[in-house]
Specification:
The protein is an alpha/beta fold. It has a single domain, classed as TIM Barrel (Alpha-Beta Barrel). The protein has 12 helices and 8 strands. An 8-stranded parallel beta barrel has the order 1-2-3-4-5-6-7-8, surrounded by 5 helices. The two termini are 33 Å apart. The mean pLDDT is 97.
């Protein structure tokens, strides 16, 4: 899927003062990303605080994104969980019109073994009407998708077309890149190491920092994909301090602080997440002032 190479933005869900979803801000964010040259959008992922959204909010948000996007960028939607039967039912009941692929996270909290992970994603792939991108983020889920399991899933389900790997393990990443079919996308889920993965054959990144610095991050990743490493690493060095800052108090706490500084949406989050401390806000403001 060529349209899902490059840089996808893991979008936040902007909230209004009353706690509801701020749809005008959502529309403005999409316009911002289109103008800044982002390759595709990812909604209802971790950065979207999707676990705090109601089923009704998720349905409405999905439709609003399609309406606001107007077919300009490919759309990926997060559909994951740790109750396989419930997730399959949700997928079967969802209207995916306007979306290109589903991003599905490794089951969290239960800590399944590799056979459980295989069977979970096998059920997801069987139910999914769209191509599926696996999401490996062991720091959050407590379980990791082994390369061998990914290869089993590729063999069993042709609609599993990629993986977002946030492990930051370049050894495992390179081994997977060498083993997968040509059509299979290996995407980074870790902003600090995304360029490294692209330089060893990865296909891009689903990024958090691109939500706040879309042009800067997209430019350096595309330079890396073209083999222009010197320029790419110079670009990364410039924004690396901000990448570290936005994760200092968790995601999307730092990103929303940056977006609030840019006056693109409020810094409001839903519990159990809270807004960035005044100390972090000051650091982000200071770091932002040094960026071109």
């Amino acid at each position: 899927m060529q349209e899902l190479k490059g840089v996808g933005v893991a979008m936040v869900t902007p909230f209004a003062e009353d706690g509801g979803i701020d749809y005008p801000a959502l529309k403005n964010l999409i316009e911002f990303y289109v103008e800044q040259g982002i390759d595709y959008l990812v909604v209802l992922g971790t950065t979207a605080e999707s676990v705090t959204l109601t089923s009704e909010e998720k349905v409405t948000l999905m439709r609003k994104v399609v309406d606001f996007n107007q077919n300009r960028l490919p759309l990926v939607v997060g559909k994951g969980g740790n109750n396989t039967a419930a997730l399959v039912n949700e997928i079967e009941q969802t209207d995916f019109e306007g979306y290109t692929a589903i991003l599905s996270v490794c089951p969290y909290y239960n800590r399944p073994n590799q056979e459980g992970i295989f069977q979970h994603f096998s059920a997801v792939a069987t139910a999914a009407p769209l191509p599926v991108i696996l999401y490996n983020v062991p720091s959050r889920t407590g379980a990791s998708i082994a390369n061998e399991t990914t290869l089993r899933l590729i063999d069993a389900h042709k609609n599993i077309i990629g993986i977002k790997d946030a492990s930051a393990d370049m050894v495992l990443g390179e081994a997977l890149i060498k083993a997968v079919p040509d059509y299979f996308l290996v995407l980074s889920g870790d902003d600090e190491t995304a360029l490294n993965l692209c330089e060893i054959g990865g296909h891009g990144v689903i990024s958090v920092i691109a939500g706040g610095l879309p042009k800067q991050f997209s430019t350096l990743i595309h330079l890396g994909l073209k083999g222009e490493s010197t320029a790419a690493h110079a670009g990364l060095a410039q924004i690396l301090p901000m990448i570290k800052l936005i994760f200092e108090e968790g995601n999307p706490t730092g990103l929303k602080a940056l977006l609030a500084l840019q006056e693109r949406c409020s810094s409001q989050l839903r519990l159990p997440l809270v807004e960035a401390s005044s100390v972090l806000q000051s650091k982000i403001e200071s770091a932002s002032s040094t960026l071109v």
